[in-house]
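User: Just a sanity check before I run the rest of the batch. Below are the C-alpha cells for the first item. I only need the designed sequence back.
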C-alpha cells in the first residue's frame, strides 16, 4: 500500500482512496481543532502569564512561520511526493503543542507557537495538495471533499466550546495538550494508509532557499513594524524596519523572476484569474483571524462572560463554515457562474463583522449566535471555492505550489489581520480609557485600567478593587470595559469595509466551468 505511485492518473481502488482520505481527515481535524480552541482560551492565557503586550504575537508567530514554511514544502511535495512531509509535519506539530502547554511565560509560548507554525505550515502545504493527487478530476474531487468538510466541521463544532470548557475547568494548558492524542492517531493513519504519489517531472533546479530567506525577511520585518508602530518606537527603528521590508520585497520580486526554480513562480500569477483568487484568500484570512481572536476578547473582557460562555457564542461561526461548505458542494457544479458564490460569501461574512460593531453586553445571545451563523455560511462559500477555483486554473504539475500559495496568502492575511487589529484595539482602548478618566479627573488610575489584564486576571482585579475602594471601582471598571468594547467595535468595522472591497477582486476572476469536460483539460496539464 505504501509503494510509490508514479502518476496521480493511475487508478487507486475505492478502499485505498477511502482509507487515504480518512488519514487526511485526521490531520485536518488536528489543525482545525488547534485553530478553534486557542482563540477562546487566549484571554485566560494572557491573564495567567501576564503578557497582554504579546497577545497578538501568540497568533502572528504561528502564522508567520507557517507562511514561510508553506511554499517551501508545497514545492518539495511537488518534487518528491507529499507523504514524508505530512508525517514529519505531524511529529513537529504535536511536539510543539506539548511545548505550548508547558510554557511558563509569554515569550516561551510565542516561541513554541512559532515552532507549531512550522508544523502547521508543512501540514497545510501538503495535506490539501494530496486531494487532487488522489482525485485528478474536479467532479470526483468535489464528491470526496465532503469527507474533508465533515472532518473540518467536527473539529469546528467542538473546538470553541471545548476550548472554553478545558480552560474553565482544567486550565488553559489542556487546550494545547488535547492535540497530543489527535497527533498520535493522525501519525498512524497517514503512515498506514496514504500512498506515496510522485509526479514525473524535470527537477533541474534545487529548492529556492534564497526566495525563502527573502520571504522570511520581508514578513518578519513587516510584522515587527506593525507591532512596534503603535508603541511609538524610535523613528530610526521604524524607518529601518520599513526600509528592510521594502527592500526585501523588491529583492524577492527580482529574484523570483530570475530564479531557475522559483519558490513563488511568476508564471502562476500570469495564469488568468489566479492573482485575484490569491488576493481574496488574503482578504478572507485577514477577516477570519481578526474576528476569531478579538470577538472572544470582547465577550470575556468586555462583556464579562466566562471562557465557556464565550466559546458557545463563537461555535456557530466555525460550525456553519462546514455547513456552508457542504451546501456549496451540492450547488457549485450546477451554477452557470459559480464565481458568484464568492460575492455572496463576502457579503455574508462582512455582515457578521458589521453587526459585531452593534453587539453590547445587553445584546441577546441568540442574536449574536444568529450573526455568527451568517458569518460561518459566508466562509463556507469562500474557503472551498477558492481552493477549487485555484486548482481548476493551475497547471497540473504546479498544483502543490498553487495550493500552497493560496494557503500562504490566507495566512499572510491572518497575520496582518491579527497584528493590525491588535494595534487598532490597543490604541483605541488606551485612548478611550484616558478620555473617560480625564473627564472624571481620575487619570491616576490609567496605569491600571489601560491594561486589559486588569479586567481578565482575578488577582489583579481584586487588587484594583481594594486600592480603588474609595473611588467607585465598579464604575471605573465599567468605563474600561466600555472602552475595550468600543475599540473592538471599531476594529470590526474596519474588517467589514475591507471585506466589501473584495467585490472588486471577484470581478477579476474569469468565468469558470465545473463540468465533465474538466477531466480532459486537467489531463492536458499533466
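Assistant: Here's the designed sequence for the first item:
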Amino acid at each position: 500500500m505504501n509503494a510509490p505511485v508514479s502518476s496521480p492518473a493511475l487508478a487507486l481502488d475505492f478502499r485505498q482512496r477511502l482509507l487515504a482520505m480518512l488519514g487526511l481527515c485526521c490531520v485536518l481535524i488536528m489543525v482545525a481543532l488547534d485553530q478553534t480552541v486557542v482563540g477562546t482560551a487566549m484571554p485566560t492565557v494572557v491573564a495567567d502569564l501576564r503578557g497582554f503586550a504579546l497577545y497578538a504575537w501568540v497568533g502572528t508567530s504561528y502564522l508567520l512561520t507557517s507562511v514561510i514554511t508553506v511554499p517551501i514544502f508545497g514545492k518539495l511535495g511537488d518534487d518528491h511526493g507529499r507523504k514524508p512531509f505530512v508525517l514529519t509535519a505531524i511529529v513537529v506539530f504535536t511536539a510543539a503543542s506539548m511545548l505550548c502547554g508547558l510554557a511558563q511565560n509569554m515569550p516561551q509560548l510565542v516561541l513554541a507557537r512559532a515552532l507549531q507554525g512550522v508544523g502547521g505550515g508543512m501540514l497545510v502545504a501538503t495535506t490539501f495538495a494530496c486531494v487532487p493527487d488522489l482525485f485528478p478530476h474536479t467532479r470526483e474531487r468535489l464528491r470526496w471533499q465532503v469527507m474533508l468538510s465533515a472532518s473540518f466541521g467536527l473539529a469546528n463544532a467542538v473546538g470553541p466550546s471545548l476550548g472554553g470548557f478545558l480552560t474553565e475547568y482544567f486550565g488553559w494548558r489542556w487546550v494545547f495538550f488535547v492535540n497530543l492524542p489527535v497527533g498520535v492517531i493522525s501519525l498512524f493513519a497517514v503512515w498506514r494508509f496514504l500512498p506515496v504519489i510522485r509526479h514525473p517531472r524535470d527537477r533541474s533546479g534545487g529548492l529556492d532557499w534564497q526566495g525563502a530567506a527573502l520571504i522570511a525577511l520581508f514578513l518578519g520585518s513587516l510584522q515587527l513594524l506593525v507591532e512596534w508602530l503603535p508603541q511609538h518606537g524610535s523613528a530610526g527603528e521604524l524607518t529601518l524596519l520599513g526600509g528592510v521590508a521594502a527592500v526585501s520585497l523588491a529583492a524577492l520580486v527580482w529574484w523570483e523572476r530570475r530564479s531557475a526554480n522559483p519558490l513563488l513562480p511568476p508564471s502562476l500569477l500570469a495564469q488568468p484569474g489566479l492573482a485575484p483568487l490569491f488576493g481574496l484568500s488574503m482578504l478572507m484570512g485577514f477577516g477570519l483571524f481578526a474576528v476569531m481572536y478579538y470577538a472572544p476578547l470582547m465577550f470575556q473582557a468586555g462583556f464579562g462572560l466566562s471562557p465557556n460562555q464565550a466559546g458557545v457564542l463563537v461555535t456557530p461561526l466555525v460550525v456553519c463554515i462546514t455547513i456552508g461548505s457542504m451546501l456549496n458542494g451540492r450547488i457549485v457544479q450546477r451554477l452557470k457562474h459559480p464565481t458568484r458564490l464568492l460575492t455572496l460569501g463576502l457579503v455574508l461574512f462582512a455582515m457578521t463583522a458589521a453587526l459585531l460593531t452593534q453587539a453590547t453586553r445587553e445584546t441577546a445571545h441568540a442574536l449574536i449566535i444568529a450573526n455568527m451563523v451568517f458569518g460561518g455560511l459566508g466562509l463556507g462559500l469562500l474557503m472551498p471555492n477558492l481552493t477549487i477555483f485555484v486548482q481548476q486554473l493551475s497547471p497540473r504539475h504546479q498544483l502543490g505550489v498553487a495550493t500552497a500559495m493560496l494557503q500562504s496568502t490566507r495566512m499572510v492575511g491572518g497575520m496582518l489581520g491579527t497584528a493590525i487589529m491588535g494595534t487598532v484595539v490597543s490604541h483605541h482602548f488606551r485612548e478611550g480609557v484616558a478620555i473617560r478618566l480625564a473627564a472624571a479627573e481620575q487619570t491616576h488610575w490609567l496605569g491600571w485600567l489601560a491594561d486589559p489584564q486588569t479586567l481578565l486576571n482575578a488577582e489583579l482585579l481584586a487588587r484594583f478593587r481594594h486600592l480603588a475602594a474609595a473611588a467607585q471601582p465598579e464604575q471605573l471598571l465599567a468605563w474600561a470595559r466600555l472602552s475595550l468594547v468600543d475599540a473592538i467595535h471599531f476594529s470590526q468595522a474596519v474588517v467589514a469595509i475591507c471585506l466589501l472591497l473584495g467585490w472588486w477582486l471577484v470581478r477579476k476572476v474569469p468565468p469558470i466551468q465545473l463540468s465533465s469536460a474538466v477531466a480532459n483539460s486537467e489531463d492536458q496539464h499533466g
